[in-house]
Structure formats: structure tokens, C-alpha cells
Amino acid sequence: MTDLAGLVAAVREDIAPQIGTGRVADYIPALARVDPRHFGIAIATCDGGTAAAGDADLPFSIQSVSKVFTLTLALGRVGDALWRRVGREPSGSPFNSIVQLEREQGIPRNPLINAGALVVTDAILAGRRPEIAIAEILMYLRELADDPRVAVDREVAQSEAETGFRNASLANFIRSFGNIANPVASVLETYFNQCALAMTCRQLAHAGLFLANGGIDPVGGQRVVGPDEARRINAIMMTCGHYDASGDFAFRVGLPGKSGVGGGILAVAPRRASIAVWSPGLNASGNSLVGALALESLSRRTGWSVF
Length: 307
Ligand code: GLU
Hints:
Elements: H1 4-15, E1 23-24, H2 29-32, E2 40-45, E3 50-54, E4 60-61, H3 66-78, H4 99-103, H5 114-125, H6 130-145, E5 151-152, H7 154-163, H8 165-176, H9 184-195, E6 197-199, H10 201-207, H11 209-212, H12 227-240, H13 246-252, E7 257-259, E8 264-269, E9 273-278, E10 281-282, H14 289-302
Antiparallel strand pairs: 1-10, 2-3, 2-9, 4-6, 5-6, 7-8, 8-9
Helix pairs in contact: 1-14, 3-5, 3-12, 5-8, 5-9, 6-9, 6-10, 7-9, 8-9
The chain binds glutamic acid.
């Protein structure tokens, strides 16, 4: 039995000298003004343990961490048919890259880059109005986190929409290949709102716990996805969860993980725990600098790396 409280305290001590380093995302004001000195960590284990340290109860913008949950939701609805529309290979490209799409006929490399996430969002929309799909995604996260306080930050969603030219290009380009079925405006509105979900480390760790536990949330006992699906989502997180730095994350941490430009990372230690970290300063690849260091320390201290 791991001493979880001792573990999070030790991890926090390990990274303390680095707190505040990295560059906060500055493409929208609501993210640019976040204090880079925040650091939070929360662990939820399959046997019901929890521990947290630092700013683990402060909500932050989960951004692309949401792509894991929309992927789960879409797989639950359309099953393997989703893989006809999106691949499962690492892209080796930045999160918002468009270059591969033309060569690969509008089939994005994987569901965790922006192009793939837009296709996944289109699968969730499936003819619904964006406000319905957004409400469904929000409800889904509230259920997974077992916390009704999970919310969409409207200011972030609005700013994403005002500056989302690259995402609009991606969606239009994919639609030109016939791989987006709903109006591009609806897909973008839904996507910008899912990126704007605000969650705490504690909520996020709970929300990801089913992935560590073969698809079942061990706290409430409900099945979220089948065991094969959980295994596959973990595989995609491992190979694609950190964009063109996914190999480096696997090398250093050895856990399936998904980052977001808000500075959050969700990591899964299969059969053991779900871990959420948050530190807003990013490295050159757009992933949380101190968050990755914290997970590296945690993996070293616990031996939880899957390798
Ligand atoms: N809202 C960002 C975008 O789609 C999310 C990017 C990220 O978190 O990596 O551009």
C-alpha cells in the first residue's frame, strides 16, 4: 500500500525549485493571465485512495485533456466505426498541424491532435445542436468526476472562438474531404466549449480513473467503457497524448498521458491510479514543463512506469 500523502508531498518537494518556469499559453487573454507559479497534483487509486497537494482544488482550463473524454464518449456511441474516420498513429507534428491532412485524404492521424479531435466532436454532434452536444459533454464530465461543479468557462470558450482560425481551417479542410458531416460552425462551437472545460486536479484524477481500472469507475462501480476500449485509449494516450513530444513523455514518464495548453496533464497508471497535475508554464512543445517533471518524479518514486 503506497503512502499517497507522503508521495504527493515528496513529488511536490522534488519539483519545488522549478515552480514558475515555462511559458504560459498566451494566445487568449484568459490563459495568458494565469499565474505560472500554480502547481497542483491529485492522485486517485483503483482501491479508493486519494491524495492531493498544492493547488489541487483550483479549477483550470483542461483544454486538450478534454480530447480523451470526447474520444471515450464517441467510442461509446459509434464504436469501432470511429476508426474509419480517424487513425491511431502518432503524428510527429504539432497539435494544430494541417500538413498531413492533404496527403492522407482528410483522415487525421489520431484523435488526440486537433484535426482528429474535430472529427471526434463531429461524431458526438451527429445532427444535434451544439448546445445539446456541449451539455452532454459537460454532463459526462460531471458524472465521471462525480462532481456537479465541473463547468465550462464561457470567457475561454468565447476567446477560443475569436482566435480559432487554425481550427476553422482544419475543420473546413476535413469537411472538403467529406470527413465532417455537421456544419463546420457547429463542430467548432462544440470543440471550443469542450476545450474551455474548467476542472480541478482532484476532479480530473477521478474522471480518468476508469482508464486505470479496465473501464470501470471503481468509486461508483459504473462501467464507462469495455476493458478492450480502455486498453486502447491508454495506448493512444501513450503514443499520441503529447503531440510531437509523445516519445519524450513515454521515455521520461512511461505512463499513458494527455496534456493541454492550460498546463494540465492526466496520466494513467494501469491497474493502479489516475494522476492529474497542473502547472501553467509550458515547454517548447506546448506541454506543461513542471507537470511533466512532477510525473517523472512520481513514476521514478513508485515504479509505476508500464515499462
Ligand atoms: N484550444 C486549443 C486549440 O485547440 C487546445 C490546444 C491544446 O490544449 O493542446 O488550439
